[in-house]
């Protein structure tokens, strides 16, 4: 393998779920270093040093992606450690599901601030580095909910926003050799998904032509591909990885 050999990455929300799988996949693919930005630091020191035993440098940085100063500090920390950023994966995301007519302002703001504004802050601090390098890969984790999902008006708006944001950065970053893409996962077995009521999980599986939930590693493999030079002419796209489910 080794398709990410010599590369340095920042990934948000990399301590569990899809993010954790992406970290493992990047290590399998020979990445030189990963800065894992986490709000609640699920990665303990022991886990970080165990990940580091796989031959790559791994650093865990506490960061609230919805806070510009935190993000600025985290990117500066990654730069001190690695000297550059080749790959940025905006994966951190939260849900506050409710029917729209019951949705609170807090639920709206929390989801937009983490899922959409968080990606904005990361790009704000990383894009200048990539422009200077005239090289970079950005992968933003959207969702099939971007196309509309009952109970997720806030989440859908944030994830649809990420698609427009990514397509715009792809057009602006193209002349500087920066590729920007989205991955839109379907229903994936993660802690986040476990909050969904049982009868709705059954509906989701019925609505998924492959008739099952996805696994985090099935998202990570696509993220790794998009982060590598195998995807060097692929930019401005949103790839649904959903077992053919649409919302
Ligand atoms: N379409 C239209 N109306 C619907 C509906 C549907 N699909 N499902 C439920 N309703 C209606 C119900 O009939 C009910 O109507 P009445 O009030 O007239 O009886 C009303 O909506 C409220 O239904 P509930 O009693 O179920 O409402 P609730 O407030 O207890 O729960 C909910 C609502 C929080 C949205 C809950 O249904 C839920 O959690 N749904 C799952 C949302 C979901 O798919 N989340 C995905 C999480 S995974 C993820 O986000 C990752 C990713 O990227 C995909």
Automatic annotation (TrEMBL):
Q: Domain Ketoreductase spans what residues?
A: 7-186
Name-wise, this protein is 3-oxoacyl-ACP reductase FabG
> Which one Pfam family would you cite for this protein?
adh_short_C2
* Entries under PROSITE patterns matching the protein: ADH_SHORT
For this UniProt record, the keywords arranged alphabetically read as follows: Oxidoreductase
- What SUPFAM superfamilies does the database record attribute to this sequence? NAD(P)-binding Rossmann-fold domains (SSF51735)
Query: Which superkingdom?
Result: Bacteria
| Family the UniProt entry places it in | Belongs to the short-chain dehydrogenases/reductases (SDR) family.
Q: Quote the EC number.
A: 1.1.1.100
EC class name: oxidoreductase
State the Gene Ontology terms under molecular function.
3-oxoacyl-[acyl-carrier-protein] reductase (NADPH) activity
- Which InterPro entries does this entry report, sorted A to Z? KR_dom (IPR057326), NAD(P)-bd_dom_sf (IPR036291), Sc_DH/Rdtase_CS (IPR020904), SDR_fam (IPR002347)
């Amino acid at each position: 393998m080794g398709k990410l050999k010599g590369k340095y990455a920042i990934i948000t929300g990399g301590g569990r779920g899809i993010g954790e799988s992406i970290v493992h996949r990047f290590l399998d693919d020979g990445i030189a270093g990963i800065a894992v930005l986490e709000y609640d630091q699920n990665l303990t020191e022991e886990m970080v040093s165990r990940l580091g035993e796989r031959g790559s440098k791994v650093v865990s940085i506490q960061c609230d992606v919805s806070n510009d100063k935190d993000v600025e500090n985290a990117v500066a920390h990654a730069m001190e450690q690695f000297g550059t950023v080749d790959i940025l994966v905006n994966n951190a995301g939260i849900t506050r599901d409710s029917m729209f007519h019951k949705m609170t302002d807090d639920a709206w703001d929390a989801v937009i601030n983490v899922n959409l504004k968080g990606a904005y802050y990361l790009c704000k601090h990383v894009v200048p580095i990539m422009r200077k390098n005239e090289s970079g890969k950005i992968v933003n984790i959207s969702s099939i909910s971007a196309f509309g999902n009952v109970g997720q008006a806030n989440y859908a708006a944030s994830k649809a926003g990420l698609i427009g944001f990514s397509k715009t950065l792809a057009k602006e970053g193209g002349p500087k050799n920066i590729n920007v893409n989205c991955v839109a996962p379907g229903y994936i077995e993660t802690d986040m998904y476990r909050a969904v009521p049982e009868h709705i999980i059954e509906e989701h599986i019925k609505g998924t032509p492959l008739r099952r939930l996805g696994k985090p590693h099935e998202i990570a493999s696509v993220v790794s591909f998009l982060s590598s030079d195998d995807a060097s002419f692929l930019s401005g796209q949103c790839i649904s990885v959903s077992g053919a489910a649409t919302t």
